[in-house]
Amino acid sequence: MPSRSRTRLRLAGVLAAVLVAAGVATGPAAQAHEKKPATLADLAQRHGRYFGSATDNPELTDTAYTRILGHEFDMITPGNGMKWYATEPQQGVFDFSQGDEIVNLARANHQKVRAHTLVWHSQLPGWLTSREWTADELRAVLKKHIQTEVRHYRGKVYAWDVVNEAFNEDGTYRETIFYKTLGPGYIADALRWAHQADPKAKLYLNDYNVEAIGPKSDAYYRLVKELKAQGVPLHGFGLQAHLALQYGYPTTLEDNLRRFARLGLDTALTEVDVRMLLPATEEKLAQQADWYRDMTEACLAVRRCVGITVWDYTDKYSWIPAFFPGQGAALPWDEQLAPKPAYHAIREALRAPR
Ligand code: XIL
């Protein structure tokens, strides 16, 4: 053995002796102890699922935040950066800088991207909403928007929320600018255009209050059947799952996921949060944890439920307090980035063998 190696060995021995004397364990047990605990992504992957989080560009300067974002999840969704107002702020002038920043971050962290969203009545640019369009004009505008954006991210994203929030609570079509001008066929058109632009991306319809079986999810069930019968490219149904403790848990979630799977679709919980009336109490946080556990179990119970995304992971950056005044504490990490009971409940659900 060369003498330098021997010196090194001796030094290692001395170091170990010092550590032992100081009460610091050094053997295999210590190594096992130091082994990093499995992340939500690791645990989900054991079931062939992903575990994701939304994020947003302004938060990315918070390094304590990005450390957890990059570590704990294997799927990322831009909370705003890929929406129409951000990506086509003037007609025909595209800006993908915000989405790109998030796609690049995801790539650096070996994460996939659920892209969100192409056709939605909300967060549209002023140039689009402030004038009247003929059907031909709007169809051309919509096609160009979809195809330019999907082409830009071709090969870089796993899935697209192609149409977001197309139905009212009673299962009638939401009277959006697209529906009013183009009729219900805009949905099939949007899916076909997106598919042409990226034939490998999974294409989703996505909505809230569709977790339970009821008029709104029934409307999707019927629409999916029709679209499938017509051979329209559609691969998934996204259930946002913005739940609120005061409105009760959607107990038919698992059955609902299963009926969409039977139509040949993937499903995903795409924007999960569980808000509560503030202040948060220990009791409410425990109930919230139960709901996160139940949702996770429901997804794991249905083979084609491919993954879960929380709508950001920390209360520090949740959209809830701004949109539902007096409510909040909706996510599995608190405002100090400390895991809440919900985080541990998700882990427990993911740890259970299946
Ligand atoms: C929210 C964002 O999180 C907020 O930052 C933004 O101000 C409004 O939109 N359903 C959706 C998401 O599909 O796009 C919404 O995201 C939350 C509700």
Automatic annotation (TrEMBL):
Which Pfam families does UniProt cross-reference here?
Glyco_hydro_10
Record carries keyword Ribonucleoprotein: no
Tell me which positions the record assigns to the signal sequence.
1-32
GO MF terms listed in the record are:
endo-1,4-beta-xylanase activity
Gene3D superfamilies noted in UniProt: Glycosidases
Q: Do you know which SMART domains this protein is assigned to?
A: Glyco_10
Enumerate the spans annotated as GH10 domain: 54-349
GO biological processes: xylan catabolic process
- Alphabetically ordered keywords of this record: Carbohydrate metabolism, Glycosidase, Hydrolase, Polysaccharide degradation, Signal, Xylan degradation
What reaction does this enzyme carry out catalytically? Endohydrolysis of (1->4)-beta-D-xylosidic linkages in xylans
Question: Is Cytoplasm among this UniProt entry's keywords?
Answer: no
Instruction: Name the source's superkingdom.
Output: Bacteria
In short, the EC number is: 3.2.1.8
> What does the similarity note say?
Belongs to the glycosyl hydrolase 10 (cellulase F) family.
| Protein known as | Beta-xylanase
The protein's organism comes out as Streptomyces aurantiogriseus
